[in-house]
Amino acid sequence: MEWFESWFDTPYYHLLYNNRDYTEAENFITKLTQELQLPQSSKIIDLACGKGRHSVFLNKLGYDVLGLDLSQQSIEFDKQFENESLTFKVHDIRNAIDSEPVDAVFNLFTSFGYFDNETDDRNVFKSVYDALKPNGYFVLDYLNEEYVRKNLVPESTVQREGINFHISKKIEGRHIIKDIRFEINGEAKHFFEKVKLHTLEVIENYASECGFERIKIWGDYQLNDFEKEISPRCINLFKKNN
Fold it and tell me: What is the rounded distance in angstroms from the CA atom of residue 239 to the CA atom of residue 213?
């Protein structure tokens, strides 16, 4: 079992990250859909949708949304939000997407770069390309490799509902590795996250091999222009070429 299969399906993963700013995320998605000029009723795939917060908000904005995620538990949770224009399915982002062609695919908040095998990374782009209509958009929201290297915090402790999550981060080769340790009822728990530090060039190569054109890079969730030295995010906008 891959690290993300075990970690993402635990309640502790969702507990650790339950402080994520919903208002910031909703403002980001609102700006993003306005920037792309996606008319209401456009079909959007939220790829690696987790607990569905972005899918639900996109649907409230008037879009027809399919949320996909590897975590069975997350999708079971998401099912409560389903309606005629919002559905959720279990899906591995490396595999072909079973869907009619869509106007846009969003992969948000660093849900890429988990795989050791480069073929798996390429397969993600291929599956997205095949799922899009001609001239469809792919938004890949990723970390900025250079920013991460310069601003790494090696040790920290996060408290959530009486649990102290001890977190250590390090860079090994092309990966950033986050070790997460805590105790539950006296029992030690250990999980980790491992994400590739993909460069701008590598991401663009994956995209162009499939037939995408990168037409924009934003550097944060306010959609400011990307600056390699200081931008915390690398939000790529690709368009499907025909």
Answer: 5
Please report, as a single letter, which amino acid is at residue 159: Q
Considering the domain architecture, whether residues 101 and 175 belong to the same structural domain is answered as: no
Q: What's the CATH number where 33 sits?
A: 3.40.50.150
pLDDT digits (tens, 9 = 90+) for 143-170: 999 999 999 999 999 999 999 999 999 9
The Cα 70–Cα 234 span in angstroms is 23
Stated as kind and residue range, the H or E segment containing 224 is: none
Which range of residues forms the domain containing residue 174? Answer: 148-194
Q: Are residues 155 and 228 in the same domain?
A: no
Q: How many residues does the chain have?
A: 242
DSSP 81: G
Both 140 and 175 in one domain: the answer is no
pLDDT tens, residue by residue, 4-57: 888 888 889 888 987 776 788 899 999 999 999 999 899 999 999 988 999 999
